[in-house]
Design a protein that fits this description.
Blueprint lengths: L22 E7 L8 E4 L4 E8 L1 E6 L2 E6 L3 E4 L5 E5 L6 E7 L11 H12 L5 E4 L4 H19 L4 H18 L10 H17 L6 H8 L3 H12 L3 H19 L4 H7 L5 H12 L3 H8 L5
Antiparallel strand pairs: 1-8, 2-7, 3-6, 3-8, 4-5, 4-7, 6-9
Helix pairs in contact: 2-3, 4-5, 4-6, 4-7, 5-6, 8-9
């Protein structure tokens, strides 16, 4: 099962590739993911995706973008994002993550100062959908497929070939940046991350929206508005999803009864927990435990 592990500010823990070669290519099938989707996270790596089956709804910068098979989605460094399957739970996509320093050559180089830094810090290239019906965008998607083939072959010189492909791919992307979607104000992103951090630290408590508002210094209604703007979801929905994720860890790694797991995960009772679990994962907690149990005995 695929799980995105994050710190309290939603930054992903996993390093993509290595320091020497900060590139990684993944093939994600949504049904292989815990909860059936890729949950909220961010990372320093730039990400490029190509939907290979079905359709995937990507969330970034307060927007939802439906991407169908054959099309792609770009997410810049440091942007909070997530992905859900649309209709078909087996929807899948090819994912390329690469660190910006790969294109910088060395600190202070003209490559970094002219072609990298301005497009990471600016608002012109936060995210964008890539259509196979556009010749320039389709060329980016074909390069992603080429990188995937090179990455899997691991033949002599593949790192150099991938670096060259990424440099050309990046130039195509920044050339399209004038058409990028309008950014979400920085305050909204910062507040959403503060809310997420608070929820993750206090998920076991009986939280209210007023509690969240007091924690981040805004009214409950303003917190809801800002959070929805960035994530496309409500605070309470996010909290329930996070509680379910924590309960899954307990189901897999402990022998605690379901009633205890419900309380440990922040649910008021076992019946509501089981109902929420079935609605999200289409099976009961005990059925899930039998299929994914990792403790001995």
């Amino acid at each position: 099962m695929i799980s995105i592990n994050v710190y309290d500010d939603q930054r992903e823990m996993k390093q993509h590739g290595s320091f020497e070669f900060p590139v990684a290519v993944y093939h994600y099938v949504m049904s292989d993911c815990v909860m059936g989707y890729i949950n909220w996270h961010w990372h320093e790596e730039i990400q490029l995706n190509l939907v290979t089956h079905g359709a995937v709804r990507f969330f970034a910068d307060g927007q939802q973008v439906l991407v169908k098979e054959g099309d792609g989605f770009f997410i810049n460094s440091g942007r909070l994002h997530m992905a859900r399957p649309e209709a078909d739970p087996d929807s899948s996509y090819l994912c390329l993550d690469f660190h910006p320093r790969l294109m910088s050559s060395f600190s202070g180089s003209i490559f970094e100062e002219k072609y990298v830094k301005p497009y990471l810090a600016g608002d012109g290239l936060n995210h964008r959908k890539l259509s196979s019906r556009s010749s320039e965008q389709e060329a980016v998607l074909r390069q992603l497929e080429t990188i995937d083939r090179l990455y899997r072959s691991a033949e002599f010189g593949y790192e150099l070939k991938i670096a060259a492909q990424i440099a050309e791919l990046w130039l195509r992307l920044i050339s399209l940046s004038g058409e990028a979607a309008a950014p979400t104000p920085l305050r909204s992103h910062d507040t959403a991350q503060e809310i997420i951090r608070f929820l993750r630290q206090h998920y076991q408590e009986d939280l209210t929206l007023n509690d969240v508002g007091r924690a981040v210094g805004f009214s409950a209604s303003e917190c809801c508005r800002l959070f929805k703007r960035v994530t496309g979801d409500t605070i309470l929905n996010y909290l329930k999803s996070y509680r379910l994720t924590r309960s899954i860890e307990l189901l897999e790694e402990t022998e605690l009864p379901v009633s205890r797991i419900a309380l440990e995960s922040g649910f008021n009772g076992a019946s509501y927990y089981i109902e929420s679990f079935k609605k999200e994962l289409r099976q009961t907690p005990l059925q899930y435990r039998r299929e994914h149990r990792t403790v001995s005995g």
